Amino acid sequence: MLNDVDLALTYSTNELAITELVAQLRHEHDRERPDAGYLRISVHKADLASADETIALCEEARKAHGRPVEILVSNAGRGKRIRDVWDIPVEEFDQTIAVNLRASFLLVKGVVEGMKSKQWGRIIFISSIAAYGAGVNGCHYAASKGGMTGMMKNLATRLAEHGITVNDVAPAMIGDTGMIPNIEAVQGLTETPMGRLGTPEECANVVEMYCKTGYATGQSFLLAGGINHK
User: Fold this and answer.
1) CB contact burial 57-92 (16+ within 10 A = b; e otherwise)
2) Domain ranges of the chain
3) Long-range contacts at 196-202 (CB < 8 A, ≥ 24 apart)
4) What separation, in Å, do the N-terminal and C-terminal C-alpha atoms of the chain show?
5) What is the mean pLDDT of residues 39-58?
6) Residue 214: C-alpha distances to residues 35, 53, 118, 126, 127 (Å)
7) Confidence at residue 230, expressed as pLDDT on a 0 to 100 scale
8) Long-range contacts: 142-150, Cβ < 8 Å, 24+?
């Protein structure tokens, strides 16, 4: 089912990275599926801390592809590491909530009518182990991700009748993202039973599973290499 999806990708500031990603995706598509035809990829610049830009993004994606968005992966995140509540500025709390929680709410509002019209849709939030109160970051980050998981569970109950599933992936200690350079950087901060960092590809595997599995909704998949979040 997912082999022939078109893509609407977003970025905030790093245009070079998104350009390189598009080239990589086209190369892999042409190599692995040479007879599948052209892969349509649109690229959209948006600051998801801005409500106006987030709302406009949904309409831009729809116009670029000439049809409603059917799969939403809400992956934008902010996670400035400040451990202790007395060190967290109010401005940082507000910015983290805006990017990690409000943006997902606005994106869902922007695409859900199109999904309802098709009676099919997939909504996947990228949450965090912090949603369970664990992790190495502070309460500002935990609040934003915990709110996301609560919103996911609520939406799942409301949207199931329209053929729309809503789930999240809750990763911890993922490498190759620029946030954690290596396993040594987090030793002493948390236990990592598998002795390595996770990979973005492993996160993508869970996202793909949700897209293909219509009977899964309201679920949060903890992808943490055995880290105990209790």
Assistant:
1) bbebbbeebeebbbbbbbebbbbeebeeeeebeeeb
2) 78-105+126-223
3) 196/225, 197/173, 197/225, 198/171, 198/172, 198/173, 198/174, 198/223, 198/224, 198/225, 199/174, 199/175, 200/174, 200/176, 202/174
4) 36
5) 94
6) 28, 31, 14, 18, 20
7) 54
8) 143/93, 143/96, 143/97, 144/78, 144/96, 144/97, 144/99, 144/100, 144/101, 145/100, 145/170, 147/97, 147/100, 147/101, 148/100, 148/101, 148/104, 149/125, 149/220
Distance CA 206, CA 125 (A): 11
| Full-model pTM | 0.89
Least reliable range by pLDDT among 24-28, 44-48, 160-164, 185-189:
185-189
* Contact predicate 127/170, CB 8 Å: yes
* Under 8 Å between Cβ of 166 and 218: yes
Is 141 considered catalytic here? yes
Computed over its alpha carbons, how large is the radius of gyration of the chain? 18
Please check whether residue 191 is in contact with residue 225, taking contact to mean a CB–CB distance below 8 angstroms: no
- Condensed to tens digits (0 to 9), the pLDDT of residues 91-112 reads 999 999 999 999 999 999 999 9
| List 132, 141, 210, 215, catalytic entry | 141
Residue 157 confidence (pLDDT) above 60: yes
Residue 125 has pLDDT above 70, yes or no: yes
Q: What CATH architecture does domain 78-105+126-223 belong to?
A: 3-Layer(aba) Sandwich (3.40)
Question: Average model confidence (pLDDT) for the chain?
Answer: 88
